[in-house]
Amino acid sequence: MAQQQPPGGERPLLIDPAREDPVRHIQFLPIIKNGKRQWIPTPRKGSVRGLNTIDVLRLDRPDLLDLFEDHVDQYVMPAIGRVRSAIAAASPAATVKREWRDHILPLVRRVRPYAALSYDVIDHEVVRRDRRTWGLRLSRPR
Q: Is the whole-model pTM more than 0.85?
C-alpha cells in the first residue's frame, strides 16, 4: 500500500513536499553566470536528500533556471522594490508593513508557485537588519 512505511527502517532518499518542508533541504543561491544573476538550487546545510532531489529531478537544468529567473524578475524583485521604496522614502512603519504584507508575504505562501525560491530571494535581498528595524517577519512557506 502507498501509505505504509518502508520495511526495515529504510529512509527516503528524496524530499516528499507533501510531508515535509523542502526549504529545510534546498535553498536557492544567487550566482552570476554570463553576466546575469541566476538563482541556483543547492542543498541547504549539506542536505543529502536535498542534493538527491536536485539531481534526480534536475532542478538545476537550464529551462528551469530560466523559469526561476523570470519569476524573480516579474514578481519577487518588483515586490521587494515596493518595500525598498517605502523604506527609502522614510515612510511610516505602517506603510512599510502594509507593502510587506500585501506584496511580499503572498509570494511565500506554500500554495504559490516557486514559494521556496521567493523565500530565499527575499531573505537574501532584504537584509535581516532592515527586517528587524521595520518589524517585518519572514516565515518559511507554509
A: yes
